[in-house]
């Protein structure tokens, strides 16, 4: 039975191998990448694009889905089905299209003129910059990050006032002749 240090060393080598280079996988015109970028040109359409810690630039066609985690998306073409973005900046150029749903979480989304979303557009906790010419064929749901920030700001302000008043009260008691330092 291998020791703990042998298992740890094997796991460390495996993690270093994964992180050292772009581990890309392709199957039936799919592009799945960790730490590398995906470029889709008009000459080389792909079926699905999945990107972790990297960026996707689409100047052609993604026939089905595009998913990006912790990267950037530059769309200057079309996505045939769904586009999903987590913690990524999204820029869709003029006349770009997404065939079905576009979902973004914690993402700044910049949509150009005449961008088309075939079904639903959902943006959660991010900023959306879109002109009036953007076409969303069904539902548009935008839940900005500011909505979640306001309660946090109020809570911080309340805590600040409580701490300030407590310190003021302790100073006032000390000035009235109570033993130094005052007790808790």
Q: What can you tell me about this protein's structure?
A:
The structure is a single chain. The chain is of the alpha/beta class and 184 residues long. It has 2 domains: 22-143, no CATH class; 146-184, no CATH class. The protein has 2 helices and 19 strands. The chain has helices at residues 4-20, 145-175, and strands at 23-25, 31-34, 38-40, 49-52, 56-58, 61-62, 66-69, 72-75, 78-79, 83-86, 89-92, 97-98, 102-105, 109-111, 116-117, 121-124, 128-129, 135-136, 140-143. The strands form 3 sheets. The chain has an 8-stranded mixed β-sheet. Strands 3-5-8-11-14-17 form a 6-stranded parallel β-sheet, with no helix packed on it. The protein has a 5-stranded parallel β-sheet with strand order 6-9-12-15-18, with no helix packed on it. Strand 1 and strand 2 (31-34) form a beta hairpin. The radius of gyration is 25 Å and the shape is elongated. The termini are far apart. Residues 21-26 have low confidence and may be disordered.
């Amino acid at each position: 039975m291998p020791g703990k240090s042998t298992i740890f060393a094997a796991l460390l080598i495996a993690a270093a191998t994964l992180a050292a280079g772009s581990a890309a996988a392709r199957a039936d015109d799919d592009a799945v990448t960790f730490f590398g970028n995906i470029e889709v040109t008009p000459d080389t359409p792909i079926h699905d694009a999945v990107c972790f810690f990297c960026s996707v630039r689409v100047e052609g066609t993604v026939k089905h889905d595009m998913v990006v985690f912790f990267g950037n998306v530059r769309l200057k073409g079309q996505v045939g089905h769904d586009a999903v973005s987590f913690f990524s900046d999204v820029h869709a150029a003029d006349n770009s299209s997404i065939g079905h749903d576009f979902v973004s979480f914690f993402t700044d989304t910049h949509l150009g003129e005449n961008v088309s979303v075939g079904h639903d557009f959902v943006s959660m906790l991010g900023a959306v910059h879109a002109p009036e010419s953007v076409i969303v064929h069904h539902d548009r749901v935008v839940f900005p990050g500011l909505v979640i920030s306001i309660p946090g700001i109020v809570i911080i302000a309340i805590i600040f006032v409580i701490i300030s008043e407590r310190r003021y009260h302790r100073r006032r008691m000390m000035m009235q002749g109570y033993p130094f330092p005052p007790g808790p």
